[in-house]
Amino acid sequence: MSEAGKQKKKRIRQKIKRNARISRYVIYKETLIDFREQFWSFIGAFVGIGVIAFVQSLYLPKLENILLIGSFGASSVLIFAAIQSPLTQPRNFIGGQIISGVIGVTVFKFLPDIIWITAPLAVASSILAMQITKTLHPPGGATALIAVIGTEKIRSLGYFYVISPVLTGTLILFVTALIFNNMTKHRKYPTNSNWTRVFKSKGLKKKQ
């Protein structure tokens, strides 16, 4: 084998070893048991969903409205347990939910009530819109779908569905995430430091 061939083979082996090390590190990080992370994920999700459910149970039955929708459960998994993911950042979380809500309502209002057309169209269109606007947030697909297949109460809201429950509930979860995801120096949300500066004072860091 020529010298050039040996060098090429050596580079390939080095690349394979490097990729293997990276893969082992990623797997290790994903399966690492960090009780602090789990604790704050649990507390944040509990408080966020709890506040939405409390407001709904206390006030909204009188208004025949609803604030708690299924997609918020999926959003909570992301913004409290995967806080470094690009899909959980404010632009994606808030923008993706709102855009998906608008698309879901639009599909329901302007197309015939044929479930095998409106349901997939609402989800697919919301995905496309989030991709174009760089606001991809997976639970947004569920938000769009709920606007089409939800209860009569939800569907009767029209575009008010985008304001409440979608925007209102999203903001409640977002504020909760800002608070509980920055309670310790081990967590930081969002990844943009300009957003978190007010929540991570020097005094708080010293206490930790």
Number of helices: 11
Supply the helix-strand structural class.
Answer: mainly alpha
Largest beta-sheet details? none
Estimate the strand proportion. under 5%
Give the overall form. Answer: flat
Q: Give the C-alpha Rg.
A: 22 Å
Whole-number total of structural domains? 1
Cα separation of the termini: 59 Å
DSSP E strands, number: 0
On the 0 to 100 scale, the average pLDDT is: 84
Helix content: over 70%
Uncertain runs? 202-208
| String of helices and strands | HHHHHHHHHHH
Describe the structure.
The protein is mostly helical. It has one domain (38-207). The protein contains 11 helices and no strands. It has helices at residues 3-31, 35-58, 60-63, 71-81, 90-110, 115-133, 139-149, 152-155, 160-180, 193-196, 202-207. Helix 2 runs antiparallel to helix 4 (71-81) and helix 5 (90-110) packs antiparallel against helix 9. The longest helix has 29 residues, at 3-31. It is flat.
Task: Throw out a few tags for this protein.
single chain; 208 residues; 74% helix; mainly alpha; 0% strand; disordered C terminus; flat
Please give a quick description of this structure.
The protein has helices at 3-31, 35-58, 60-63, 71-81, 90-110, 115-133, 139-149, 152-155, 160-180, 193-196, 202-207.
What order do the helices and strands come in, and which of them pair?
Blueprint: H1 3-31, H2 35-58, H3 60-63, H4 71-81, H5 90-110, H6 115-133, H7 139-149, H8 152-155, H9 160-180, H10 193-196, H11 202-207
Helix pairs in contact: 2-4, 2-9, 4-7, 4-9, 5-6, 5-7, 5-9, 6-7
